[in-house]
Design goal:
By secondary structure, this protein is mainly β. Among the domains are: 61 residues, Cadherins (Immunoglobulin-like, Sandwich); 102 residues, Cadherins (Immunoglobulin-like, Sandwich), CATH 2.60.40; 104 residues, Immunoglobulin-like (Sandwich); 98 residues, Immunoglobulin-like, CATH 2.60.40.60; 113 residues, Cadherins (Immunoglobulin-like, Sandwich), CATH 2.60.40.60. Strands 32, 34, 37, 38 and 39 form a five-stranded mixed beta sheet that branches. A hairpin with a 4-residue loop joins strand 35 and strand 36. It is flat, with a radius of gyration of 70 Å. The protein starts with 12 loop residues before the first strand and ends with a helix. This is Cadherin-6. One of its GO terms (molecular function) is beta-catenin binding. It holds the Pfam family CADH_Y-type_LIR.
């Protein structure tokens, strides 16, 4: 309560309040000066308030005393419970940890004043999680309290920790938190096979690296602590089988390393060992971290194809062997216990020409066609062996047959020899060197001998000298040659080899006689084609060029004429021809068709359109149309034509030559009427043609024709 010495109790003074919370948290009675709090105060929100109070004259509003300041302090009470920094804690420790191993530290705070009493003094205790864990009361550190906690038995633990103020005394406030503790794995469990013996079956035809079976050793650990490596430590199938580890399932996969053979061995016994790859030395005392088991593999018999005694066969045969000669034998047997018989055949895809054949019973290969080493040195065929009872069971083997050479080819010239000799050649002059080749093979090298044929040895104009090095030279025998007497000599040469049997052939050398200069250079002879390059002469080239030019000129002229014809009129003339015969290909309606042509145009030239020009020619000079007198309607055609003829004769613009004018007007008719015999067919009776004889010599032919017909009828 505030009170001023100037207050006489008559109500003339008024108390006012200002500062922290004035009018909100704190109010003052302006008459009595009592200060009151309007609501509950919280020290944790604001522990100190500073207020100012003053007494003023109610009437004048002037202060009667100086302003007074006072401080209000909020005393703390234990109204806040401890609060943990996390609602849930998560922690982990390795399994099998020692007692007292640190797990995690929890922390709780109290908002009360730590300097006033024990309201903020917090003590920790464990409400749930014993006897596995403990907590230090002052620090909140959680530790293990039980030895050898095993993850494989229990992996998750939930611990409840309490924090209580007032030093844990009665009446204190408390808060709790949950700590989830997980035991992590360590390699404290060795692998163990669930059974000591495993049985598997494998057909003897199982391909290499194919799986036979799977085995698995159990390990209670997880992740890398459960990784297992499998191995075959001993057994009679140590080198026949292998084992690998499936990283996903940690299983041991037994595979075939070598081909199985039921007839050779049908049972294998293996000892397989499973070992942890990551061993923790701290737990070696728990025993060896490996285990072993026995695996028995039974090999099953299958129907196998025949097997050849060799993977491939190489045979040799001379090219001159007779047909059906045996060159070698292949052998195959059924590896099964039944020992089924085998038949042999040649794969014809490898012997399309059927050069070889095989005995289906004993596998003997023999020739069926002649061989030629020079054509094909090696023959690569495939032989098939199949079981007679089951032909699907078959196998193949390659057979390489080498054809050995025999001396069956005679030597021949290395090239075609055609040479020349000069007319002025001297005797014993070398004109050509010969060489030979032989298709046959020679182990010691070829040795050829050259000689002239017997028929030419004595009478030849040339001699042959064997150089003993597989070459020979042709020399002249006389001094001069005359090409006009003999232009060409054909010299037969015999070539022989030294192999057995000796082979020889006769080759011909063509020698032409040519004119040469004093230095022996050929000038001309019949063998110009030998020394001049093949080509056309200059005269031939000029003739060909002229032909091409003439052909081009002809084509150009032909094109020009065609273009000029397109420009010419229908009637080729440079003159203005008034009347022309024009064909319209229009049949018309005959005499009854009065609309086909208006004859009035002929009688009235003024009816013609003066502006219409001919469309078939280009007009050169346009003359004014000449006006003609109009003909009367009763004018005879003869007079009309005579009038037009006279006008054209006197017309200076008319052409200088006669032209045919067609007026399409028949006239008044003939006194003789129609001369046609077409109507005679329609008459009922025979006509009398005697009157034709009265018409004169012009109709004598008709009179003879028709008169004779009447005489025939009478007869």
């Amino acid at each position: 309560q505030l009170h001023s010495d100037q207050d006489k109790g008559d109500g003339s003074l008024k108390y006012i309040l200002s500062g922290d919370g004035a009018g909100d948290l704190f109010i003052i009675n302006e008459n009595t000066g009592d200060i009151q709090a309007t609501k509950r105060l919280d020290r944790e929100e604001k522990p100190v308030y500073i207020l100012r109070a003053q007494a003023i004259n109610r009437r004048t509003g002037r202060p009667v005393e100086p302003e007074s300041e006072f401080i209000i302090k909020i005393h703390d009470i234990n109204d806040n419970e401890p609060m943990f920094t996390k609602d849930v804690y998560n922690a982990s420790i390795p399994e099998m940890s020692d007692v007292g191993t640190f797990v995690v530290q929890v922390t709780a705070t109290d908002a009360d004043d730590p300097t006033y009493g024990n309201s903020a003094k917090v003590v920790y205790s464990i409400l749930q999680g014993q006897p596995y864990f403990s907590v230090e009361s002052e620090t909140g550190i959680i530790k293990t309290a039980l030895l050898n906690m095993d993850r494989e038995n229990r992996e998750q633990y939930q611990v409840v920790i309490q924090a209580k103020d007032m030093g844990g005394q009665m009446g204190g406030l408390s808060g709790t938190t949950t700590v989830n503790i997980t035991l992590t794995d360590v390699n404290d469990n060795p692998p163990r096979f669930p059974q000591s013996t495993y049985q598997f079956r494998a057909p003897e035809s199982t391909p290499l690296d194919s799986p036979v079976g799977r085995i698995k050793a159990n390990d209670a650990d997880v992740d890398e602590n459960a990784e297992i490596e499998y191995s075959i430590t001993e057994g009679d199938g140590y080198d026949m089988f292998g084992i690998t580890t499936d990283k996903e399932t940690q299983e041991g996969i037994i595979t075939v390393k070598k081909a199985l053979d039921f007839e050779n061995k049908n049972l294998y016994i293996l000892k397989v060992e499973a070992t942890n790859t990551h061993v923790d030395p701290r737990f070696l005392y728990l025993g060896p971290f490996k285990d072993s088991a026995t695996v028995r593999i039974q090999v099953e018999d299958v129907d196998e194809p025949p097997m050849f005694s060799r993977p491939a066969y190489i045979m040799e045969v001379k090219e001159d062997v007779p047909l059906n000669s045996i060159i070698g034998t292949v052998t195959a047997q059924d590896p099964d216990a039944a020992k089924n018989p085998v038949k042999y055949s040649v794969d014809r895809h490898t012997d399309m020409d059927r050069v070889f054949n095989i005995n289906s019973g004993n596998g003997s290969i023999f020739t069926s066609k002649p061989l030629d080493r020079e054509t094909l040195l090696w023959h690569n065929i495939t032989v098939i062996a199949a079981e007679i009872n089951n032909p699907k069971q078959s196998s193949r083997v390659p057979v390489f047959i080498k054809v050995l050479d025999v001396n069956d080819n005679a030597p021949e010239f290395a090239m075609f020899y055609e040479t020349f000799v000069c007319e002025n050649a001297k005797a014993e002059q070398l004109i050509q060197t010969l060489s030979a080749v032989d298709k046959d093979d020679s182990y010691n090298g070829h040795q050829f001998s050259f000689s002239l044929a017997p028929e030419a040895a004595s009478s030849s104009n040339f001699t042959l000298q064997d150089n003993r090095d597989n070459t020979a030279g042709i020399f002249t025998r006389k001094t001069r040659y005359n090409r006009h007497e003999t232009s060409t000599y054909f010299l037969p040469v015999v070539i022989s080899d030294n192999d057995y049997p000796i082979q020889s052939s006769t080759e011909t050398v063509t020698i032409r006689v040519c004119a040469c200069d004093h230095r022996g250079k050929m000038l001309s002879c019949n063998a110009e084609a030998l020394i001049h390059p093949t080509g056309l002469s200059t005269g031939a080239l000029i003739a060909i060029l002229l032909c091409i030019i003439i052909l081009l000129v002809t084509v150009v002229l032909f094109a020009a004429l065609r273009r000029q014809r397109k420009k010419e009129p229908l009637i080729i003339s440079k003159e203005d021809i008034r009347d022309n015969i024009v064909s319209y290909n229009d049949e018309g309606g005959g005499e009854e068709d009065t609309q086909a042509f208006d004859i009035g145009t002929l009688r009235n030239p003024e009816a013609i359109d003066d502006n219409k020009l001919r469309r078939d020619i280009v007009p050169e000079t346009l003359f004014m149309p000449r006006r003609t007198a109009t003909a009367r309607d009763n004018t005879d055609v003869r007079d009309f034509i005579n009038q037009r003829l006279k006008e054209n004769d006197t017309d200076p613009t008319a052409p200088p030559y006669d032209s045919l004018a067609t007026y399409a007007y028949e006239g008044n008719g003939s006194v003789a009427e129609s001369l046609s015999s077409l109507e005679s067919v329609t008459t009922d009776g025979d006509q009398d043609y005697d009157y034709l004889s009265d018409w004169g010599p012009r109709f004598k032919k008709l009179a003879d024709m028709y008169g004779s017909m009447d005489s025939d009828k009478d007869s």
